[in-house]
Automatic annotation (TrEMBL):
Membrane-spanning residues: 21-45, 57-77, 89-110, 122-143, 155-174, 213-236, 248-271, 313-333, 353-380, 400-422
Keyword annotations from UniProtKB, A to Z: Membrane, Transmembrane, Transmembrane helix
Coiled-coil residues: none
Protein name listed in UniProt: DUF6350 family protein
InterPro entries named among the record's database cross-references: DUF6350
Pfam families referenced in this protein's UniProt entry, alphabetically: DUF6350
Length: 436
């Protein structure tokens, strides 16, 4: 869907910014709902649901739409389905891959709103957009609640604003090109008024912060490669699980879409395994290179790639966060300036002492940043299915952050120490001078 741009007739007032924001983010909500609802409609037409009422399908679509926005669903199961007594649980597993749908649709809306607004007027468009999204989320939570699935209207109104608001801000920032044009605040002038020591400290911390981002991105990238290798090695087992399920073309396609939506979660879980922190697949289970204890698992094909049996070479995976730290340390050497090392060298003349200390401090700062980001990723990727023993899925955020911080910090020290040898240019062979 696209807004048709046309010439305004003389005397025709422009669309108010709050109304344009309402239209843009309402459009994003509608498109994301259609993307979620279409697979369910396919299953409905294939007689995949016992309840053939269209209202039931609409409520299920609303519940799925809220789930991809991070809204938890409170489940109430009657007696006989999972036990002799009624059971309750909380479905809170956020499919990060599917959450990118509303994010990118809101990112598109943010670019369009920034293009239509002046610097001091953008808040009007954002206010109308986020207010509309909150109302739609609250309405979806109210009308999608059933006797078996309870949804908080407050959570339905507020939690979807996280993905939508992040997409709006990122899209508007990219379109504006700078924060000055976006919010009217010039950070450059504020930095210029500070002292030289403050600018050096700020530059050092900013470079270390970006190096920490490089470290966690590299760790997640290497974990994604490891996940692809595991899926490729266990592809025959995964195909066998698909055949045993016999879900049909539509059912298999929907199951594959759900698995693809959970792939970013699986990447973070792989990082938890590679770091040594491990991850859980239900109450009382732990999967890590150091220990593996797993109970019965549901018949989900992608789970066939889980490590099983003896892991003689599992400790090699611990090198993945260290390698990411080496890349982060090398990046800092190339792009940043170690002003702390310069300041320490001025205060203490013993270079044999200042060089190791400044490098260790750099490793601690970069490792801490990567650890905090890893803990945040682990918190987003974990969740609960709300039924049976599957109430704890994913890594423990605190342990994941601590392991990644330590291993990336070690890698940063190594990368920053060996970086000068990697950056050394090859010697040029001098040609002998010609005699007169």
């Amino acid at each position: 869907m696209k807004i048709l741009l046309r010439r305004k007739k003389p005397g025709m007032p422009p669309m108010p910014l709050w109304l344009q924001g309402t239209f843009e983010l309402g459009q994003a909500a509608l498109l994301s709902a259609l993307v979620v609802l279409l697979p369910l409609v396919g299953v409905w037409f294939a007689n995949g649901f016992t309840d053939r009422e269209f209202s039931s399908l609409a409520r299920l679509g609303g519940q799925a739409w809220l789930l991809i926005h991070g809204v938890p669903l409170s489940l109430s199961l009657p007696a006989g389905e999972l036990g002799a007594s009624p059971s309750t649980g909380l479905l809170s597993l956020l499919p990060l891959g599917l959450s990118l749908i509303p994010f990118f649709l809101s990112w598109r809306a943010g670019r369009r709103l920034a293009r239509a607004s002046y610097t001091d007027q953008l808040w009007q468009a954002l206010l109308g957009a986020l207010g509309t999204y909150a109302l739609l989320g609250a309405a979806a939570a109210y009308f999608s609640s059933t006797d078996g699935v309870r949804i908080s209207v407050t959570a339905g109104a507020l939690l979807p604003l996280i993905a939508a608001g992040a997409g709006l801000i990122v899209g508007a920032r990219i379109e504006a090109g700078s924060w000055v044009r976006l919010i009217g605040m010039d950070l450059t002038d504020w930095i210029a008024r500070t002292s030289q020591h403050s600018r050096w400290a700020g530059s050092y911390l900013w470079s270390a912060l970006r190096a920490g981002v490089v470290g966690i991105v590299a760790a997640l990238g290497l974990s994604a490669v490891l996940l692809v290798v595991a899926l490729a090695l266990n592809w025959a087992t995964i195909a066998a699980v698909y055949q045993r399920l016999d879900a049909g073309i539509i059912g298999g396609a929907v199951l594959t879409v759900v698995e693809l939506g959970l792939m970013p979660n699986f990447v973070v879980w792989t990082l938890g395994w590679a770091s040594g922190a491990g991850f859980s697949m239900g109450t009382g289970s732990i999967i890590s290179p150091l220990e593996t204890t797993v109970g019965p698992l549901p018949a989900v094909p992608v789970l066939a790639a889980l490590p099983a049996g003896g892991m003689e070479y599992g400790y090699v995976a611990l090198l993945i966060p260290v390698a990411a730290g080496i890349l982060a340390g090398w990046w800092f050497l190339r792009e940043g300036e170690n002003h702390f090392d310069e300041w320490l060298s001025i205060k203490i003349r013993a270079r044999w002492f200042t060089a190791p200390v400044s490098t260790l401090v750099l490793g601690a700062i970069v490792g801490l940043v990567s650890g905090v980001l890893a803990a945040a990723a682990g918190w987003l990727s974990q969740g609960s299915l709300g039924v049976g023993r599957f109430v704890g899925l994913g890594p423990d955020p605190l342990w994941l952050g601590l392991w990644v911080a330590a291993e990336v910090g070690v890698g940063v020290v190594i990368g920053y120490a060996v970086g000068p040898w990697l950056e050394r240019e090859p010697k040029q062979v001098r040609e002998p001078a010609l005699k007169a």
